[in-house]
Each structure stands twice: as structure tokens, then as C-alpha cells.
Specification:
The protein has 166 residues and is mainly α. The protein has 2 domains: 89 residues, Orthogonal Bundle (Rna Polymerase Sigma Factor, Chain: A), CATH 1.10.1740; 73 residues, Arc Repressor Mutant, subunit A (Orthogonal Bundle), CATH 1.10.10.10. 74% of the residues lie in helices and 0% in strands. The N and C termini lie far apart (37 Å).
């Protein structure tokens, strides 16, 4: 892959990476940084002559791994701050379905959250998701099943009459 073809593919890929990571972590800045980091690392490999089988799959994997690392780091910082004192109470406000869905997705276990975002936001198939997250297609289908169940259980009480769409 030469510089021009890499640049052409990377332009469209950057937005997909950032959207996926944002949906998983809920932080636009972190999403942007992880997409950028993945593409920089991909370019370093391509520039060194390494052939990537799938730039999208490789970059998505790197982006998600980088995001996970940052979230672990932030979690440790948050736990340390929590020990210092109680959080400041926030005002309660009316919540929309979109806000509740976002919160429910962010509350899913990491693997379920990742497969839901890759499947529903990026419209990737089970086999592509399995390659990105490094597991089998069956494990991805299982994670999607459990994620749908958890989302339904969490959202149904607050939004009666709303039908889940697959």
C-alpha cells in the first residue's frame, strides 16, 4: 500500500473509528485521540513495509485497545478521587430515550458494549466484529444476545411501549 492509497482509505476510516470508540466510551476527545493513534500506528507499519490484511480491522483493534488502556487509567484516577470525597450531586432532568440508550450501552460490560457498537452503529457483520475483537463468531453472537437482553431489561421500565428494533 502506498502513501496515497493509505491516505484515501484513512480519511473515511478515521470517522468510523472515532464514532465507534465514542459510542463505546462516551468521550469525544478520547474517541478522536484513539482514532488518530490507531491511524498513526497503521501508517508507521505501512511505511515500514508491513502489509496489513485489513486496514479497517487492524485500526479498529488498535483504536479499541488504546481506548481500553485510557479508560483503565481514568478509572484508577476516578477511584482515587472518589476516596477523597463524595461526588457533587447533579440536578435531575427529564431524560430522552436517546440519553437512556447511551447510558444503558455505556453500562454494559466492555465486550458487550463493543459488539453492540460495532454491530449497530457501524453496521458490521458478526464475522468482521469477531476479527476486530479477537474472538469467535459464536462468542460475538452470544455477546449480542446478552447485550440485547440487558438493554431491554434496563430500558423497558423507563420507556414502556417503545419497541426494540434489531
Amino acid at each position: 500500500m502506498d502513501a496515497r492509497s493509505f491516505a484515501n482509505e484513512a480519511v473515511g476510516l478515521h470517522d468510523r473509528l472515532a464514532r465507534a470508540v465514542f459510542a463505546i466510551c462516551g468521550d469525544a476527545s478520547l474517541a478522536e485521540d484513539s482514532a488518530q493513534e490507531a491511524l498513526v500506528r497503521a501508517w508507521e507499519r505501512v511505511d515500514a513495509g508491513e502489509e496489513l490484511a485489513s486496514l479497517e480491522a487492524w485500526s479498529m483493534t488498535v483504536s479499541l485497545n488504546w481506548c481500553r488502556q485510557q479508560l483503565r487509567r481514568r478509572g484508577a484516577e476516578r477511584r482515587a478521587l472518589h476516596r477523597v470525597g463524595p461526588p457533587v450531586p447533579e440536578e435531575l432532568e427529564a431524560r430522552t430515550l436517546a440519553e437512556d440508550v447511551t447510558e444503558a450501552v455505556l453500562a454494559l460490560p466492555r465486550r458487550q458494549r463493543e459488539v453492540v457498537v460495532l454491530h449497530y452503529l457501524l453496521d458490521l457483520g458478526v464475522d468482521s466484529i469477531a476479527e476486530i475483537v479477537g474472538s469467535s463468531s459464536g462468542a460475538v453472537r452470544n455477546a449480542l444476545f446478552h447485550a440485547r437482553s440487558a438493554l431491554s431489561a434496563r430500558l423497558a421500565p423507563a420507556h414502556p411501549g417503545q419497541e426494540a428494533s434489531r
